[in-house]
C-alpha cells in the first residue's frame, strides 16, 4: 500500500527526473528511459525496452544512480537534501566516469554531497 501511494503521488515527477538524469549520463543512442508504476526503471535502446538485468554492471550503476537522484528530487521538492555516495562509479569505464563526475560536480552547486571513493581515478577535480 505504501509503495502504491508513493508511486501514485510521485510517479510523474520521478519519471521526469529519471529521464533528465539518464539524458545527462547515458549514451545518446539510448532513445528513451522510463519508470513504471512499480518504480522499476527501464531504457529503450535500439527499439527494445529493457529492464536493468539486460545491462552491464556499470550501466546498471548509472541507471540506479539516476533513479536515486530522481527519487530524491521528487521526495524533497522544496528543500535540497544532502547526498551520500559511497564509490558509486567503481564499475564504470573512464569515459562514463568522467561524465558521471561532471554531473556530480554540477549537482554539488545545489546539493551538499558526501562523495567517498577509494581510487584517484574517480575523484572530482
Overall outline = globular
Uncertain segments: none
What is the makeup of the main sheet? 3 strands, antiparallel
Q: What percentage of residues falls in helices of 4 or more residues?
A: 40-55%
**Distance separating the two termini:** 44 Å
**Secondary-structure element order, as H and E?**
HEEEHEHE
Strand content: 15-25%
Strand order of the largest sheet: 1-2-3
Radius of gyration: 15 Å
Tally of strands: 5
- The tally of helices reads 3
- The residue-averaged pLDDT reads 84
Instruction: Briefly note the structural class of the backbone.
Output: alpha+beta
Q: What is the gist of this entry?
A:
With 125 residues, the chain is an alpha+beta fold. It contains three helices and five strands. It is globular and about 40 Å long.
What does this structure look like?
α1 crosses α2 (57-75). A three-stranded antiparallel sheet has the order 1-2-3. A two-stranded parallel ribbon has the order 4-5. A hairpin with a 5-residue loop joins β1 (30-35) and β2. Helices cover 46% and strands 18% of the residues. It is built from three helices and five strands; from the N terminus they run αβββαβαβ. With 125 residues, it is α+β, with helices and mostly antiparallel strands. The termini are far apart.
